[in-house]
Write a structure and sequence with these properties.
The protein is mainly alpha-helical and 494 residues long. Among the domains are: 155 residues, Rossmann fold (3-Layer(aba) Sandwich), CATH 3.40.50; 42 residues, Orthogonal Bundle (Helicase, Ruva Protein, domain 3), CATH 1.10.8; 101 residues, Orthogonal Bundle (Arc Repressor Mutant, subunit A). The protein is built from 20 helices and 13 strands. It has a three-stranded parallel sheet, with helices on one face. The protein has a three-stranded antiparallel sheet with strand order 4-5-8. Strand 11 and strand 12 form a beta hairpin. Helix 13 packs across helix 19. The structure holds glutamic acid. The site of glutamic acid has 7 residues, from loops. Glutamic acid (GLU) binds next to loops.
Length: 494
């Protein structure tokens, strides 16, 4: 029978979804989709102090925004729930019980001070610190009596001695670990809550997970999980640890991606006006190489193209310029409707249109976005760019000189335009085009002499975006003001 693919994303809801987490989610999502499998989202919420509902909501919203809808898990349900670890304590307790009874786990009563001292001594001797095994020999019945009497205890897993554990990683190949370097690790804390390395094994096993794709920072956890799989007699999933994401600092040095290198949360990119398809595309390229020249892939295309064979084990570098380029490409290709959906909030926020835009404002917004879409890499740049065209114009001598040989025509055109604008309180692309046509007809001036003077007077530049649309950005009042000033100045020039 063909293998069924079941992959999961298991974040801890202790902060917003960040770029690294989103990339892990994406790779799991893509491998599941590519193979007609199931993508599961569950929550590792055992860190009671740091977990919050708000973080969970943020993670879910970000995943949905990125288009990574899950087939099974929190909110949507499924046959393997519950999907939050704090709701699965019974499952963990039953497994702990079994390990205790089989002598594979034991209660440990060592105090924190004792453990700290032990660690210090080991370090002083130049040894890698690990639990010394003081409570290993306490019989279960005796330990249970002490616990029942109220003594505080953790539960440790008895790590087999002198063995080699091999992580057969789908990205990194075989990575070996010596069990003697691990030390009996805690699987249940004194408050009865299981730790990640234990709970995750139970979750992955009971949910029938076939592949675990996660960040390289978890590679050192995997041998602990593997010895647990063996102790519990469970079949292991396949593992793939994907490289760290590095950021380049000002001196060009590469270090683990952090806030210093740019925003780290997905929602921050949403707020800056990035499109989700651009983020998905960018995330996929953080470690995965398509193997050809093409770099732009929609989520659907990624679902077809993705494979773990093309995931690199060298670190991925977070390159904001590349993200901007990708986003710019998607903006250019987006429909007018989508552009408006994304651009309008930025125009509202900058006070360029009202909170409840009028029909005229909507037309204005559409025109503005359409003309500027080739000039922005994210929508947050939109108001800035509009302001640039609306800022005071400085007329350069060289630019003015370009009008000298057609001064008379230029003045005729500018005066005619001024008059028309005075009579027209509203300018749209169409009405502007109509005015131009009329001016040409009335003055007999055509071509460069018609357009060039208007461009210079209105923008101070010899080149730039389409003037019909630019006029809408600048707006009727400002245009009129500029024309009046320019005519006054220009007619005095020789
Ligand atoms: N909660 C872990 C994390 O957010 C999950 C690790 C795993 O996928 O096993 O990093």
């Amino acid at each position: 029978m063909e293998q069924q693919y079941r992959l999961r994303f298991a974040p801890s809801p202790t902060g917003p979804l960040h770029i690294g987490g989103a990339r892990s989610a994406l790779f799991n999502y893509l491998l599941a989709k590519k193979n007609g499998g199931t993508f599961i989202v569950r929550m590792e919420d055992t860190d009671l102090e740091r977990s919050s509902k708000e973080s969970e909501e943020n993670i879910k919203d970000s995943l949905r925004w990125l288009g990574m809808d899950w087939d099974e898990g929190i909110d949507v349900g499924g046959d393997y729930g519950p999907y939050r670890q704090m709701e699965r304590l019974d499952i963990y307790n039953a497994a702990v019980r079994r390990l205790l009874e089989e002598g594979k786990a034991y209660y440990c009563f060592c105090s924190e001070e004792e453990l700290a001292r032990e660690k210090e001594e080991q370090q002083a001797r130049g040894e890698v610190p690990k639990y010394g095994g003081k409570c290993r020999a306490i019989p279960l019945a005796e330990a249970e009596k002490r616990v029942a009497a109220g003594e505080k205890a953790v539960i440790r897993f008895r790590v087999p001695e002198g063995e080699t554990v091999v992580v057969d990683d789908l990205v990194r190949g075989k990575v070996s670990f010596d069990t003697d370097g691990i030390g009996d690790f805690i699987i249940v804390k004194s408050d009865g809550i299981p730790v990640y390395n234990f709970a995750v094994v139970l979750d992955d096993h009971t949910m029938g997970i076939t592949h675990v794709i996660r960040g390289e920072e978890h590679l050192s956890n995997t041998p602990r999980q593997l010895v647990l799989y063996d102790a519990l007699g469970y079949e292991k999933p396949k593992f793939a640890h994907i490289s760290l994401i590095l950021g380049r600092d000002n001196e060009g040095k590469l270090t683990k991606m952090s806030k210093r290198h740019g925003s780290t949360s997905v929602v921050a990119y949403k707020e800056q006006g990035y499109l989700p398809e651009a983020i998905d595309n960018f995330l996929a390229l953080l470690g995965w190489a398509p193997g050809g020249e093409e770099e732009l892939f929609t989520l659907d295309e990624l679902e077809q193209a993705f494979s773990l064979e093309h995931v690199s084990k060298s670190p991925a570098v977070f390159d904001l310029e590349k993200l901007k380029w990708i986003n710019g490409m998607y903006i250019r290709g987006a429909s007018g409707e989508r552009l408006l959906e994304y651009g309008l909030p930025f125009l509202k926020k900058a006070g360029l249109v009202s909170a409840e835009p009028t029909a005229d404002e909507m037309i204005w917004a559409m025109t503005v976005i359409d003309v500027l879409k080739t000039h922005i890499s994210c929508f947050a740049e939109l108001p800035e760019l509009i302001e640039k065209y609306r800022a005071a114009v400085v007329y350069d001598d060289d630019v003015l000189a370009s009008l000298k040989d057609c001064k008379e025509d230029a003045l005729a055109v500018l005066r005619a335009m001024k008059e028309k604008l005075e009579r027209n309180p509203k300018v749209t692309v169409d009405s502007y085009k109509k005015m131009l046509k009329e001016i040409s007809k009335e003055t007999g001036i055509k071509g460069r002499n018609l357009y060039h003077s208007l461009r210079v007077a209105k923008t101070g530049e010899e080149q730039g975006p389409d003037l019909d649309k630019l006029s809408v950005i600048i707006g009727r009042d400002l245009m009129l003001e500029r024309l009046k000033k320019f005519i006054k100045m220009f007619q005095r020039m020789d």
